[in-house]
Amino acid sequence: MRKTMTAALPADIRDVLAAISDRTFSHLFLVACGGSLSVMMAGKYFADRFSSTFACDIYNADEFVCRDPRRLGSDALVILCSQTGTTQETVHAAQHAEARGATTIGMTLDPTSPLSLAVDHTVSYQAAYTTGKPIDSAYSNYGVLYMLLAGLTDARERGDLTTDLLTSLGSLQRTIEGAHDTYADRFHAFAPRFADRKTIYTLASGASYGAAYCYAICVLMEMQWYDSQAIHANEFFHGPFEVVDQNAAFVVMLGLDETRRLTERACDFLFRHGSRENILLLDAEELELTGMSDRFRPLLVPLIFFDALWRFAYRLAELRGRPMLEGRRYMKKLTDY
């Protein structure tokens, strides 16, 4: 059942923030793998824009252990995310952070999972993609991470972020449902063009880059076996633009944050040297974002893009005669890797 967003943080987030309210952190580490790592990319954008009291880095979980950052110690806060809470690398990263004296918070669907047992504090979130249950996206992994970061920042800088964020999240689910209507005809036209392709690229920048990364590796590659690559809109001009021709297929996420001009520049090139029929552009300026504050709209746009594109992926799967989650060869089926 969907909950209705109110002007209060969920109880588990309030409890965690209260428990660490007397701690001074100089460094924040955001640690995860795969789709959970992509959410952390947006979290780092949030921290970079709104916090001046702690630096923020993002790591793949196993590389976090291997690199063993020298800043990782008693004045560090590590937020880790694993949907099932069973991702071995993320659990190991939590144990490593604990051993170094850092404070740890785990984000997961399962508060009894191995990740939950390995961290100091656990917060839960909702996910529809693997559970099949309808949710209010305000309580998705993005929403919960943003609530944590807003609370951390407000407690140390009096930024008055939390109230504004909660109000904006209250409009999120309605906006997502509106986006499905906005993009329906476009998806209907593009799905037959993209279904039989071997390669589909994704392109974005800023807060939306994580969504492009996740769509490339966790949806197009993992679930439909396309060759895919997430391309940063400015890195596009430092090598990747050489693949562009009339047949190159791109999904472009044009957001509203401070990096928008980077993606606009890439779009201009794609439209000039590629084919518009092969460039699926989602522009956040097309969306109805009433109820969201100006400062949080750019950070909520990636959730809207990804939710809409998830439906597009199912349309591709239908046309290709391939299942989505059930058709994977290795994920959740092998344990010896």
What's this, in brief?
With about 325 residues, the protein is an alpha/beta fold.
Write up what this structure looks like:
45% of the residues lie in helices and 15% in strands. With 337 residues, it is of the alpha/beta class. A five-stranded parallel beta sheet has the order 2-1-3-4-5, sandwiched between helices. Strands 7-6-8-9 form a four-stranded parallel beta sheet, sandwiched between helices. Strand 3, helix 4 (88-99) and strand 4 (103-108) form a beta-alpha-beta unit. The model is unreliable at 1-6 (pLDDT under 50).
The 3D shape can be described as globular
| Helix and strand element order | HEHEHEHEHEHHHEHEEHEH
Oligomeric composition of the shown chains: single chain
Total DSSP helices: 11
CATH class of the largest domain: Alpha Beta
Task: Work out the strand percent.
Answer: 5-15%
CATH level 4 superfamily of the largest domain: Glucose-6-phosphate isomerase like protein, domain 1
Order of neighbouring strands in the sheet with most strands: 2-1-3-4-5
| End-to-end C-alpha gap | 37 Å
Q: Topology of this structure?
A:
Layout: H1 11-19, E1 27-32, H2 34-50, E2 55-60, H3 61-67, E3 76-81, H4 88-99, E4 103-108, H5 114-118, E5 121-124, H6 141-157, H7 161-169, H8 172-194, E6 199-204, H9 209-221, E7 227-232, E8 250-254, H10 260-273, E9 279-283, H11 297-320
Helix pairs in contact: 2-6, 2-9, 3-4, 6-7, 8-11, 9-11
Provide key terms for this protein.
337 residues; alpha/beta; Rossmann fold; 9 strands; globular; disordered N terminus
